[in-house]
Specification:
Layout: H1 2-22, E1 32-38, E2 43-51, E3 56-60, E4 66-70, E5 74-81, E6 86-96, E7 102-111, E8 117-127, E9 138-139, E10 142-155, E11 161-164, H2 168-173, H3 179-188, H4 196-209
Antiparallel strand pairs: 1-2, 1-5, 2-3, 3-4, 5-6, 6-7, 7-8, 8-10, 9-10, 10-11
Length: 211
């Protein structure tokens, strides 16, 4: 009897955990106060909702009108992120396609200097590996949930955006002749390059020392 009780409690707790994962919020689902700067040199203030997957934004002005723009129309925009409680800056920048076409995409500016680091959010559906008929979002192997992943880029001297593979060797190669010095920085500061903050600390330090 006790065994059944413990299993029931475990199942309930697991459902709560999975449910919280499935219901988690993302900044792209919110309206944020901000301003849009168009290539026509006009600017529009209001509440902004962005979608990097679709490469467009919607702004609701003070007169409650909705305006939609894509990256070919917007030079830059900023938002006061309601979820993250910080100001974020986005720019429409060209990226070369496989056919060598320059296409404008929205990128978030993380830090700028000798190395300008950019980011784009992507969202991936994952499976919990646990099945319960009471769960929502059930896949073949269990409940599903969405996680946000960050893709990083740098802006090169020609003004093009270059993808940065998220491995230590590729990241350290960005520093050229200063690679060995930056390796020592990682060791001294116990930086494992495990997340965005670790990467930002590394790039910001480099930009500050080697202006």
């Amino acid at each position: 009897m006790k065994k059944i009780f413990y299993i029931s409690v475990f199942t309930f707790l697991l459902q709560l955990i999975v449910g919280s994962l499935i219901a988690q919020n993302f900044s792209k689902e919110y309206w944020h106060k901000g301003e849009v700067y168009l290539f026509t040199e006009e600017s529009v203030k209001g509440s902004i909702r962005y979608d990097l997957d679709q490469n467009n934004i919607t702004i609701r002005t003070t007169d409650n009108k909705l305006h939609s723009y894509n990256a070919s129309q917007v030079e830059q925009f900023w938002i006061q992120d309601e979820l993250q409680k910080r100001v974020r800056y986005f720019y429409a920048l060209p990226q070369l396609t496989k056919n060598d076409y320059r296409v404008l995409y929205f990128f978030e500016l993380l830090t700028e200097g000798k190395i300008t680091l950019l980011c784009r959010e992507s969202f991936v559906v994952k499976q919990t590996g646990y099945y319960s008929p009471t769960m929502r979002g059930i896949g073949a192997n269990g409940g599903s949930y969405v996680v946000q992943e960050d893709d990083y880029f740098v802006l090169n001297n020609e003004g093009n955006v270059i993808d940065v593979e998220e491995n230590r060797e590729t990241i350290m190669s960005l520093f050229g002749a200063k690679k060995d010095v930056m390796e020592l920085y990682l060791i001294d500061h116990n930086n494992k390059l495990r997340n965005r903050e670790d990467l930002l600390k590394l790039i910001r330090y480099y930009n500050e020392v080697y202006k």
